[in-house]
Amino acid sequence: MEKTPTNVITARWLHLLFNVVGKGERTPTTARFVFIQRHPLATAISQKKWPRCKILSTFELVAHWAAVTEKIEETVKELGELVVGVVKLEDLTANPKKEIAGILKQLKVEPVKKDFKTRVREDPNKRYIREYCRQLYSDANARTEQLLILEKYGDIAKRWGYEIEQFCH
After folding, report:
1. Potential cystine with 61: which of 7, 15, 44, 45 (Cβ 3.0-4.6 Å)?
2. Domain, as residue range, for 13
3. What is the pLDDT of residues 42-54, one digit of tens each?
4. What local confidence, expressed as pLDDT, does residue 2 receive?
5. Ramachandran category for residue 144: left, alpha or beta (phi over 0 → left; psi -120 to 50 → alpha)
6. What predicted TM-score, i.e. pTM, was given to this entire model?
């Protein structure tokens, strides 16, 4: 399981790598894929700590989230049953036992008898919600930017169960 955007592209390569046996021969792949998705605004704000992202606006970073998300959608269609699922990070951290059990069931692997609550940050977006909302409430440009994000990327966010306008509520 990986939530790094480059791994969305790498999944296709790994699929080919594990699926090719020899000269034109193929075997059922042993590689399976789970993609982790996160709220677009939380993703954008979390990326601002990276040196190469500090100069980008929230709008530009959400645009990147949307591009990666569209690549996930393409990869899911292309790889079909090899994709075990797409898990929302918020669901995974809120109820890791349930989410991991679902993944393991699809993989036909016995569930792990481990208490994940002690090892998982329950609300990974809390800090980013606070940071974003503080800026949103104090800066008219941030509010304008949110309207642009909603207009351009609101539909793809909703398709994945995220509401741009509800992030601060």
Report:
1. 44
2. 6-166
3. 999 999 998 989 9
4. 40
5. alpha
6. 0.84
19 closest CA partner among 76, 82, 103: 82
List, for residues 93-105, the tens digit of each pLDDT value: 998 888 988 988 8
- Identify whether 1 is part of a domain: no
Which residues of the chain are modeled with pLDDT < 70? 1-5, 19-30, 112, 114-119
Distance of CA 76 to the CA centre of its chain: 13
Residue 138 lies in a domain: yes
Number of separate domains in the chain: 1
Q: End-to-end distance of the chain based on CA atoms, in angstroms? A: 29
d(CA 15, CA 99): 23
Judge whether 20 lies within some domain: yes
Residue 109 pLDDT = 81
